[in-house]
Amino acid sequence: MQEKNLSPEEIAGQELLDKTIAAHGGLDTWNSFEGLSYNLANAGKNLYQITQLQDRRTYTKSDDFEIGFDGKVAWSLPNAEKVPGKSAAFYYNLDFYFAAIPFVLKDNGVNVFYDGETTINEKAYETLKVTFGSEIGLTPEDVYYLYIDPSTSLLEILTYSVSFFDKENAGINSAKVYSDWQEVDGIKMPGSMRNFAWKDGVMGEENVNYQRVFSDYKFLKSIPDNSIFEVPEGGLTENI
User: For residue range 53-110, what is the model confidence (pLDDT) as tens digits?
Assistant: First the structure.
């Protein structure tokens, strides 16, 4: 199979992504683990999540619901009414994916472009634009922009579109600010992700209802019990 000819923007994008991943701990270190678990607090709610890093099966438990992905379908118990977005398919890997950037941007079907230097709140950043192949996931129309601190090569701001619910009007109107980095088994993971309004390149007011606080990160050499990902009796399924 003939390899795709990369544009100069793609070549520079991959170089910057590789530099960023190295600053976050390195892809070899990330790939040496089978699983990742953590606790997450958001808007007064607490949950536990564990993800199989190679095939992305997940299990999440909160006081109000359980959701998971068994490799084929997303599921919820007792139902998805109290799940963010009221959809297990939408939410099952949402927090994991944002926390696991930049590493997950090495997945097949992810396109990365260097988008120049950007100034936000009087600070200069190196910028990556991320798009997805048409066969990737439920929302290949999503677009991300990563704003990387040039002095540390760490991800600091991420802006993104959400096309899951409305593909025709999925503009970029949110920004996540990463902070409180924690080094866990050689990998830098965010302790906090705060959401801000975003419009025309300007960051607005913070939406405190969407602040994520992570704790108790654990990288796992093996998953203790893989049955945790399977659809439980009574679980409601959604196709992926």
Answer: 999 999 999 999 999 999 999 999 999 999 988 899 989 999 999 999 999 999 999 9
- Can you give the pTM of this predicted structure? 0.91
For the chain, the maximum distance between any two Cα atoms, rounded to a whole number of angstroms, is 53
For residues 218 and 200, give the distance between their C-alpha atoms in angstroms, rounded to a whole number: 38
Q: Compute the residue count for the chain.
A: 240
Are the C-beta atoms of residues 66 and 232 closer than 8 Å to each other?
Answer: yes
ω into 78 cis (within 30 of 0)? yes
Please write down the HEC assignment for all residues of the chain: CCCCCCCHHHHHHHHHHHHHHHHCCCHHHHHCCCEEEEEEEECCEEEEEEEECCCCCEEEEECCCEEEECCCEEEEECCCCCCHHHCHHHHCCHHHHHHHCCHHHHCCCEEEEEEEEEEECCEEEEEEEEEECCCCCCCCCCCEEEEECCCCCCEEEEEEECCCCCHHHCCEEEEEEEECCEEECCEEECCEEEEEEEECCEEEEEEEEEEEEEEEEEEECCCCCHHHHCCCCCCEEEEC
What's the CA gap between 94 and 71, in Å, rounded?
A: 15
What are the tokens at 11?
A: 């070549």
Q: Strand 192-199 relative to strand 236-239: parallel, antiparallel, unpaired?
A: unpaired
Tell me which CATH code domain 11-189+206-239 carries: 2.50.20.10
Ramachandran region, residue 180 (left: φ > 0; alpha: ψ -120 to 50; beta: rest): left
User: Which residues have a Cβ under 8 Å from the Cβ of 6 and sit 6 or more positions away?
Assistant: 14
Between CA 193 and CA 215 the distance in angstroms is 12
- Cβ count within 10 A of residue 200: 5
